[in-house]
Design brief:
alpha+beta, three-stranded antiparallel β-sheet, about 35% strand
């Protein structure tokens, strides 16, 4: 099998495993007390807060919105916990733009899939300019903390 095809299969398998895990996480949260589900506007505000913090490059600002259990999975298969992520933050040339938000939620959890357009580097490697993302949030008081984030963009091309 060609190396490129093998890598593509591995990425898809990682993505599917991650999405299955996020679905399980969201279903585990279904025991939450009754409350209003998040709206598309809530989701956009949470994503904007995350992207604004990332674009700022201010690690303290980013740390404030990451849940202690935070994990990221990147398009190259690398994953980081909260501590490692704060040491390997992406860099942006312009504030990313989002589109096509899809939101599922209950009172305390929100899963958002979307497309992002950015000029981003990770570990000094360029990242595909338009790619899907999946971000999971947990509500703590009035704040949506980022629990998990998956970046499906190809890194290094």
């Amino acid at each position: 099998m060609a190396k490129g095809v093998n890598i593509m299969i591995q990425r898809r398998a990682l993505g599917l495993a991650f999405m299955a895990g996020m679905a399980g996480l969201a279903s585990m949260a279904s025991y939450s007390p009754a409350g209003a589900a998040a709206s598309t506007e809530d989701a956009q505000a949470a994503i904007d807060g995350f992207l604004d913090a990332l674009y700022s490059g201010d690690s303290a600002r980013i740390e404030a919105i990451l849940a202690p259990e935070f994990q990221v999975l990147r398009g190259d298969g690398k994953s980081h916990d909260r501590t490692a992520y704060l040491q390997a933050l992406p860099k942006y040339k312009f504030r990313p733009k989002t589109s096509d938000l899809k939101v599922t939620s209950n009172a305390n959890m929100m899963v958002v899939s979307y497309l992002i357009e950015s000029d981003q580097t990770i570990d000094d490697e360029p990242v595909a300019p338009v790619a899907p993302r999946l971000t999971v949030f947990r509500r703590e008081g009035s704040t949506w903390l980022v629990v998990a984030h998956s970046n499906f963009a190809q890194v290094g091309k």
